[in-house]
Amino acid sequence: MDEEYFKYARLNEPRELRPLMEKYGQDVWNYAYFLTKKHDAADDIFQDVFFKAYRHMDTFRGEASMKTWLLKIARNTAYTYRKSAFLRKMVLFGQTGPNRTHPSAEDDFLREYTDDLWAVVLKLPVKYREVLVLHARYDMAEADIAALLGLPPGTVKSRLHRARAKVTALWKEEGGYERA
Fold first, then answer.
1. What is the per-residue pLDDT across 91-140, written as a single tens digit (0 to 9) for each?
2. Are residues 85 and 14 in the same domain?
3. pLDDT of residue 180
């Protein structure tokens, strides 16, 4: 059983939620943003996740890590959020401000290189993209990804292998290797 279970199982006061949010908050927000592609949606999901975690801490059995449990709540909340009728009918446009800093040439190259690579990753089917991002960005083990997605570990392993192969093929096809 995960030692985090005992650490958070007695969570009964809002002030005790702060360490949990500090430890896992950025990962939850980033994952919510990855799933929705919207800053405001990620903010809302972030708040919902920790509210739900606080209210349902008694359901955390410690079978997976606390991070896995929170990311699963984030995933379910994001899917519910994306399905809502309000969001399907309405799109809000945010204001953008001028960019006042001028990055170096190296920063420009790395940003472009990273953006191109992420563009390739985002072209993958969801089932491959999700396991790849959870593994690469969130440094989750295959067993934790399997628990989060409700898949057998062998399926996660094969999807991760196929995702890497597809990224490599797409990267070569688009000439990414030539610029790197």
1. 444 444 445 566 677 766 666 777 778 888 888 898 999 999 899 888 88
2. yes
3. 52
Chain-centroid distance, C-alpha 155: 19
DSSP H helices, 15-103, are 18-36, 39-55, 66-83, 85-89
pTM: 0.59
CATH of the domain at 163: 1.10.10.10
From the list 166, 94, 155, the residue with the least C-alpha distance to 129 is: 166
Domain match, 21 and 67 both: yes
What range does the domain containing 135 cover?
105-174
- Note the pLDDT tens digit of each residue in 37-62: 888 889 999 999 998 988 888 777 77
**CB within 8 Å of 111: residues ≥ 6 apart:** 103
Whether residues 85 and 148 fall in one domain: no
Residue-wise burial string across 126-148, b where 16 or more C-beta atoms lie within 10 A, e elsewhere: eebbbbbbbbeebebebebbbbb
- In the structure encoding, which two tokens stand for residue 169, read together? 């093929």
Nearest to 33 by CA among 75, 88, 5: 75
CB atoms within 10 A of CB 6: 10
d(CA 171, CA 121): 9
